C-alpha cells in the first residue's frame, strides 16, 4: 500500500531450451486480472505499479501473464502472479537493551557469538533489519536478519558500549548493548563456589532465576549484589541439572571467610529454595567424597577450558562462559 507509481514488484525469469535465434527477445503480455491497469510489465519481464494501491479499494490481484519467444512460429507459456496488498507499516519496532557478561581466563576474549538482539514489531508483514554503529564494526558485528551479535577478534578485558538499531524499512529504533569482559585468575577459581540446581536449563536460570538468586545471596552474605558473579554455567553430569560456578569478591583469598560464606549459603538453602521455587541439590567447595582423606588435607582444583565456550542468551541477559572442571586431591 502507498508504494509510488513505477515501484518494481517482481522480476519474471524466463528459460528457453531453444537456440538463441528462437529464444529472446521475449514478449510479455498481461492477459487478465489487470482491468483497472494498476500494473504494467516491460519487455525485460519487470512488473511495476502503474497506479497507487489502496487495500481498502482492492487488496488482491491475480494477474495472468503470457510470455512468447522469438521463434517462427512463436511459442508461449502462461503463469499467474498472485499479489496481495498489505497495510503500510504503522508501528515502530520495539527492541530490548541487552547486557552481556563474558568470562575470560587471561587478558582478552578470543571472539565468537555473544548473544542475540531481540526485537518485535506489531505490523504483521514487516521484516526487521539490524545494524550496528559503524564505529564498532571492527570489533563487533550483528547479523542483519537474525540479530545475532558476534565479537570479531581478541578483545581486551573491560566494558564496551554498543548501539544497535533495528528498522522495518520505515521506522527505526535503537537500543544500548553493554558488553562486560571479566578476567578470571587461577586464584579466583580456587576460591569459587559451585551450586547445583535440579531440573534447570542455563537459559531458564538466566532469564527466570539469576537476578532473584543474586539478590537473595546478597542479603544472606552481606555483600553487594554486583560482588556475586557467574564464572561458568553448564549442565551437570545429569543433563537436566545445572552447575553454576560463582565468584563472591568479598571472600578475597582468605580461607576463613570462604568457610563462613559456604556455611551461610548451606544453612540458607531452604530459604533460597523457597524464594526461587527451585531445588538446590548441593553447594560445593571441596570435592572430597570418595577420598580417604581428612577434610583439612583435601585440596580442590578448579580449571576452565577456554576452547569450550558456551553462550547462553535471553532477551535481556547473555553469559559467555568457559567449561569448568573440578577435581580433588589428598595432600596427606
Automatic annotation (TrEMBL):
List residues of the Cadherin domain.
1-95, 111-197
Please give one Gene Ontology molecular function term for this protein. Answer: calcium ion binding
- Specify one Pfam family: Cadherin
The record's listing under CDD domains reads: Cadherin_repeat
For this record, the Gene Ontology CC terms, alphabetical, are: cell-cell junction; membrane
Record keywords? Calcium, Cell adhesion, Membrane, Repeat, Transmembrane, Transmembrane helix
State where the protein is found. Answer: Membrane
**Secretion signal, residue range per the UniProt entry:** none
Native organism is: Syrrhaptes paradoxus (Pallas's sandgrouse)
Q: Which GO terms describe its biological process?
A: homophilic cell adhesion via plasma membrane adhesion molecules
Q: Which SMART domains match?
A: CA
Protein name as annotated: FAT1 protein
Phylogenetic placement of the source organism = Eukaryota, Metazoa, Chordata, Craniata, Vertebrata
* Gene that this polypeptide is encoded by: Fat1
Amino acid at each position: 500500500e502507498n508504494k509510488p507509481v513505477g515501484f518494481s514488484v517482481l522480476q519474471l525469469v524466463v528459460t528457453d531450451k531453444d537456440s538463441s535465434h528462437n529464444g529472446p527477445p521475449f514478449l510479455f503480455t498481461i492477459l487478465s486480472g489487470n482491468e483497472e491497469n494498476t500494473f504494467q510489465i516491460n519487455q525485460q519481464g519487470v512488473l511495476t505499479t502503474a497506479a497507487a494501491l489502496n487495500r481498502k479499494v482492492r487488496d488482491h490481484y491475480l494477474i495472468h501473464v503470457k510470455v512468447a519467444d522469438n521463434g517462427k512460429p512463436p511459442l508461449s507459456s502462461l503463469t499467474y502472479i498472485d499479489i496481495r496488498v498489505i497495510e503500510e507499516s504503522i508501528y515502530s519496532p520495539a527492541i530490548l537493551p541487552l547486557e552481556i557478561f563474558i568470562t575470560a581466563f587471561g587478558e582478552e576474549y578470543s571472539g565468537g557469538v555473544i548473544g542475540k538482539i531481540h526485537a518485535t514489531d506489531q505490523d504483521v508483514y514487516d521484516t526487521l533489519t539490524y545494524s550496528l554503529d559503524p564505529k564498532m564494526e571492527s570489533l563487533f558485528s550483528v547479523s542483519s536478519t537474525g540479530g545475532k551479535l558476534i565479537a570479531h577478534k581478541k578483545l581486551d578485558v573491560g566494558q564496551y558500549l554498543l548501539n544497535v538499531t533495528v528498522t522495518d524499512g520505515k521506522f527505526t529504533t535503537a537500543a544500548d548493548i553493554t558488553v562486560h569482559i571479566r578476567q578470571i585468575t587461577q586464584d579466583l577459581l580456587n576460591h569459587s563456589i559451585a551450586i547445583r540446581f535440579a531440573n534447570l536449563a542455563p537459559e531458564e536460570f538466566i532469564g527466570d532465576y539469576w537476578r532473584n538468586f543474586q539478590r537473595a545471596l546478597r542479603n544472606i552474605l552481606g555483600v553487594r549484589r554486583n560482588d556475586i558473579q557467574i564464572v561458568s554455567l553448564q549442565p551437570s553430569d545429569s543433563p537436566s541439572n545445572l552447575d553454576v560456578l560463582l565468584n563472591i569478591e568479598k571472600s578475597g583469598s582468605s580461607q576463613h571467610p570462604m568457610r563462613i560464606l559456604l556455611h551461610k549459603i548451606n544453612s540458607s538453602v531452604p530459604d533460597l529454595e523457597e524464594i526461587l521455587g527451585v531445588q538446590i541439590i548441593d553447594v560445593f567447595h571441596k570435592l572430597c567424597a570418595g577420598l580417604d582423606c581428612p577434610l583439612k588435607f583435601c585440596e580442590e582444583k578448579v580449571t576452565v577450558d577456554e576452547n569450550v565456550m558456551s553462550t547462553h542468551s535471553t532477551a535481556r541477559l547473555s553469559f559467555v562462559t568457559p567449561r569448568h572442571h573440578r577435581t580433588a586431591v589428598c595432600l596427606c
